[in-house]
C-alpha cells in the first residue's frame, strides 16, 4: 500500500464518467479496478490516495494509467472566461481524468456501449469477462477475470455471446474479433497513428461508427483532441452553442472538456 497526493482527481467521478466499466465502488471512498490484466484497490481521502501496490508498480503502470502528468488545472484555466456553461461544467467535474486504457478492451467496450446505459454495459462486460476471460487471483486470493482475448471472442458463437446480454452487438463483436485475429487490422499500428488516421482505421471495423471510434481514440489511444458526440453532447451543442462550439480553440484537449460536459449533464440536477 502506498500513499500519493494527487490534486484534480476524484475516484467517484472517474468511476461513473462513462469511460471505464471495470471500476467498482466497494464502499464510500474505496474502489476496485481491474485493468491491464491487474487488480487494484484505491482509497481516497481528499487529495490523498492509497493504492494497493508498491511504488514500482505505481510508477510503471498506474501513474500513466491515471494520466497524472497532465496539467488538468491548466486546462480548466484555459477555458474562455465568457463561456459560463463550460466553466461550470469543468468546476463540477474537476476530478475527472482521461484514463489510458487497453485498446482491445476499449474497442469491445464501446461497441457494447451503443444504444446502451452504463449499468447494462457494466453487466455485459462482467459477463463476457467471466465467460471468456482468464481467471486470476490476487495475493490475497481474491478472484477476478482478465478481459477476453480477440481469439476467445472470435471462437465464441453469436448465440453464446447473446447469452451475455449483448443482443445484436454479438455479431459486431464476433466479426471485430475475427478481424483482429486475422490481421485485417493491426492494433499495435494504431498507437503510431494520429487521431485522423487512427479513427479512419477504426471505422473499418464492423459496428464501429464515428462516436465509437472517437471514444476508442480518446480513452485508449489518448487522443485528447477526439470529441465524441452522443445524444447528451449533441443536446449541449444545440442548447449552449447554437453558433458552433469552438473546437479549434480547444483542439489539444477537447476530449477532456467533452467529459466535463457529459458529467455535468448527468449530475447537474443531483
How would you state the average pLDDT, rounded? 94
CATH class of the largest domain: Mainly Alpha
**Strand percent estimate:** 5-15%
Q: What is the name of the CATH superfamily of the largest domain?
A: Hypothetical protein, domain 2
Number of helices: 14
CATH architecture of the largest domain: Orthogonal Bundle
Radius of gyration: 19 Å
CATH fold-level assignment of the largest domain? Endonuclease III, domain 1
Structural class of the secondary structure composition? alpha+beta
Structural commentary:
The mean pLDDT is 94. This protein is of the alpha+beta class and 270 residues long. It folds into two domains: 2-92, TATA-Binding Protein; 103-219, Hypothetical protein, domain 2 (Endonuclease III, domain 1, Orthogonal Bundle). It has helices at 11-15, 55-65, 72-77, 84-92, 103-112, 118-132, 150-154, 158-162, 169-181, 187-190, 195-202, 210-219, 231-240, 254-267, and strands spanning 2-5, 23-27, 30-35, 38-45, 48-51, 135-137, 143-145. The strands form two sheets. A five-stranded antiparallel β-sheet has the order 1-5-4-3-2. It has a two-stranded antiparallel ribbon with strand order 6-7. The chain has 14 helices and seven strands. A hairpin with a 2-residue loop joins strand 2 and strand 3.
Q: What descriptors fit this protein?
A:
Endonuclease III, domain 1; 5-stranded antiparallel beta sheet; alpha+beta; two-stranded antiparallel ribbon; globular; 14 helices; TATA-Binding Protein; 270 residues
List the helices and strands and how they pair.
Layout (H helix, E strand, L loop, with lengths): L1 E4 L5 H5 L7 E5 L2 E6 L2 E8 L2 E4 L3 H11 L6 H6 L6 H9 L10 H10 L5 H15 L2 E3 L5 E3 L4 H5 L3 H5 L6 H13 L5 H4 L4 H8 L7 H10 L11 H10 L13 H14 L3
Helix pairs in contact: 4-14, 5-12, 11-12
Amino acid at each position: 500500500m502506498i500513499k500519493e497526493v494527487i490534486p484534480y482527481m476524484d475516484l467517484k467521478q472517474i468511476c461513473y464518467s462513462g469511460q471505464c466499466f471495470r471500476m467498482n465502488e466497494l464502499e464510500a471512498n474505496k474502489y476496485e479496478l481491474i485493468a491491464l490484466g491487474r487488480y487494484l484497490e484505491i482509497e481516497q481521502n481528499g487529495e490523498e490516495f492509497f493504492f494497493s501496490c508498491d511504488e514500482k508498480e505505481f510508477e510503471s503502470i498506474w501513474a500513466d494509467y491515471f494520466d497524472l502528468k497532465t496539467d488538468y488545472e491548466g486546462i480548466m484555466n484555459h477555458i474562455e472566461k465568457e463561456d459560463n456553461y463550460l466553466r461550470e461544467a469543468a468546476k463540477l467535474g474537476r476530478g475527472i481524468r482521461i484514463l489510458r486504457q487497453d485498446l482491445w478492451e476499449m474497442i469491445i467496450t464501446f461497441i457494447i456501449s451503443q444504444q446502451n446505459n452504463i449499468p447494462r454495459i457494466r453487466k455485459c462486460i462482467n459477463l463476457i469477462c467471466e465467460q471468456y476471460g482468464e481467471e486470476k487471483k490476487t495475493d490475497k486470493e481474491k478472484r477476478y477475470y482478465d478481459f477476453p482475448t480477440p481469439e476467445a471472442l472470435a471462437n465464441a458463437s453469436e448465440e453464446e455471446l447473446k447469452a451475455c446480454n449483448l443482443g445484436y452487438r454479438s455479431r459486431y463483436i464476433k466479426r471485430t474479433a475475427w478481424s483482429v485475429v486475422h490481421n485485417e487490422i493491426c492494433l499495435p499500428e494504431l498507437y503510431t497513428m494520429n487521431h485522423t488516421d487512427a479513427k479512419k482505421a477504426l471505422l473499418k471495423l464492423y459496428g464501429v461508427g464515428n462516436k465509437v471510434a472517437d471514444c476508442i481514440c480518446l480513452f485508449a489511444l489518448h487522443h485528447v483532441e477526439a470529441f465524441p458526440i452522443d445524444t447528451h453532447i449533441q443536446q449541449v451543442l444545440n442548447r449552449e452553442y447554437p453558433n458552433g462550439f469552438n473546437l479549434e480553440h480547444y483542439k489539444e484537449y477537447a476530449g477532456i472538456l467533452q467529459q466535463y460536459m457529459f458529467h455535468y449533464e448527468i449530475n447537474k440536477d443531483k
